[in-house]
Amino acid sequence: MSQSYNRGLIEDFGRWKEFSAGMWAWIFHKFTGWMLIGYLFTHIAVLSSAIAAADGQTIMLEGEAVNAYTGTIQGLESLFIIRVLEVGLLAVAVFHILNGLRLLMVDLGIGLEAQDKSFYASLILTGVITVASVPTFMQGVGL
Amino acid sequence: MSTQQQEPDTDAETEPEEPESQEVPADQEMSGLASPQQQRLQRKHDGMAEREREAAEDDLEGDSVHIKVFRYDPEVEGKQEPRFDDFHVPFERGMTVLDAVIYARDEFDSSLTFRHSCRQAICGSDAFFVNGRQRLGCKTQISELDQPVRIEPLPHQEVVKDLVVDMDHFYDQMHAVEPYFQDEDTPDSADLEEQRQSPENREKIKMSSRCIWCGACMSSCNIAAGDNEYLGPAAINKAYKFAMDDRESEEIKEHRLRIVEQEHGVWRCQTQFSCTEVCPKDIPLTEHIQELKREAVKKNLKFW
Ligand code: HEM
Ligand code: SF4
Ligand code: FES
């Protein structure tokens, strides 16, 4: 064989419009899995303010000196963007769990013919749960 | 476990007796309607009726079909830069993608190059990337596609010329799973007559035996694209066909499982279902890969 033409990486990334259900499920699962890992670190960072609180440190919140841990949490929770991110976190976690259950079924060889439907079901359920959670997450936050 | 398994009692007991009449037995199980084969035929029949109805509805008869075909030839000055050529092919009822490119080659441009042979989905030479999906040219009706129909060589394989891709690597992977019947020892001369397979076991490996080595699955798999050593769906399916065949001994099955459980074997599969989606022979590839994963785990986790 003389020469051949390699279409390169464009092949891999340029085709997303042609992906089917199983492929999207895979991409979303990867994405949500790593988002959850990312959240784990911010979560640890926030919780570690409890160490400072245990040492008796305080921070100023609305003119008052409060315990460092309580202050950090309350300060964050008063921010609109944090509430939005929390809704996003819930969506990501719910999808990861539901699709994770779907993947467990796939691993056990159960209902493989319906794998696309179970993916759509995961998506819809995630959407419903996310929307339903908005009032709770947005309670008492000033814009 | 697998959906291929037939009800064990039907065939074996009823077969030797000649049926007295050709009437369909009322009992569903007796009539064989429950068997996967019957279900497939039923689906095929339904699909055919559906397609005919659709074809009658939007008949393209008399129109021409607009196809855009990928062109590339490293040996011809003007074709070293890949491009798409447009052809307008007169439509005929029942025209397939393969028919269209054959027409374009015979009537418009004799240098248009692609592989084909049987024209009936048996030889596996004409898998193309048609409108963004791996399809078998001779098994894809033009009337079912949006126009212009974009016809490209299979992705993730090097293009040799026009629609011809290099299949060597695919064949290497197929051969890597030792796709032939084998046994540790030569059987005793007393056992040399026939090696019989039970109908249930035949049913279990039936779908896996339909592979025509077209390479569509491998081309659609994004894991295979990223890991060149990955055996790929077709080769794993081939391993499944032999590993699940009862006529081979336990030791050979273990040997086969050792091949598929290696680093670039079944565990690379991330169940994206792309291969199952594109296989022109409707082989449940993901299901077979998953079953081999479980078999491999069972082999390694023996607590008893
Ligand atoms: C009930 C909860 C959960 C379930 C059912 C679940 C299920 C799964 C399953 C089945 C996989 C394997 C996907 C595959 O086969 O390719 C997976 C991957 C993963 N999960 Fe989860 N998971 C859960 C919670 C979490 C949490 C809390 C985190 C992070 C802190 C997480 C992070 C990940 C990551 C990073 C991956 C790998 C993604 C990749 O393939 O790169 N998961 N999960
Ligand atoms: S498994 Fe299906 S898609 Fe893959 S090579 Fe065989 S026939 Fe083609
Ligand atoms: S020409 Fe043989 S499979 Fe299409």
UniProtKB/TrEMBL annotation, chain A:
GO cellular component: membrane
BP GO terms, sorted: tricarboxylic acid cycle
Any one GO MF annotation of this record: metal ion binding
Primary site of residence: membrane
Subcellular location field: Membrane
InterPro entries: SdhC_prok, SQR/QFR_C/D, Succ_DH_cytb556, SuccDH_FuR_B_TM-su
Annotated Pfam families: Sdh_cyt
Keywords: Heme, Iron, Membrane, Metal-binding, Transmembrane, Transmembrane helix
Name of the protein in question: Succinate dehydrogenase, cytochrome b556 subunit
Species in which this protein is naturally found: Natronoglomus mannanivorans
From TrEMBL, chain B:
Domain 4Fe-4S ferredoxin-type: 208-283
Keyword Disulfide bond among record annotations: no
Domain named Succinate dehydogenase/fumarate reductase N-terminal: residues: 66-171
SUPFAM superfamilies: 2Fe-2S ferredoxin-like (SSF54292), alpha-helical ferredoxin (SSF46548)
Cofactor requirement: [3Fe-4S] cluster; [2Fe-2S] cluster; [4Fe-4S] cluster
InterPro entries in the record: 2Fe-2S_ferredoxin-like_sf, 4Fe4S_Fe-S-bd, Beta-grasp_dom_sf, Helical_ferredxn, SDH/FRD_Iron-Sulfur, Succ_DH/fum_Rdtase_Fe-S, Succ_DH/fum_Rdtase_N
Organism: Natronoglomus mannanivorans
Biased composition (Basic and acidic residues): 44-54, 193-203
This protein's name: Succinate dehydrogenase/fumarate reductase iron-sulfur subunit
Bias (Acidic residues): 8-21, 182-192
GO biological process assignments: respiratory electron transport chain; tricarboxylic acid cycle
Family per record: Belongs to the succinate dehydrogenase/fumarate reductase iron-sulfur protein family.
Keyword list, A-Z: 2Fe-2S, 4Fe-4S, Iron, Iron-sulfur, Metal-binding, Oxidoreductase
One MF annotation (Gene Ontology) recorded for this entry: oxidoreductase activity
Region entry Disordered, spans: 1-60, 182-203
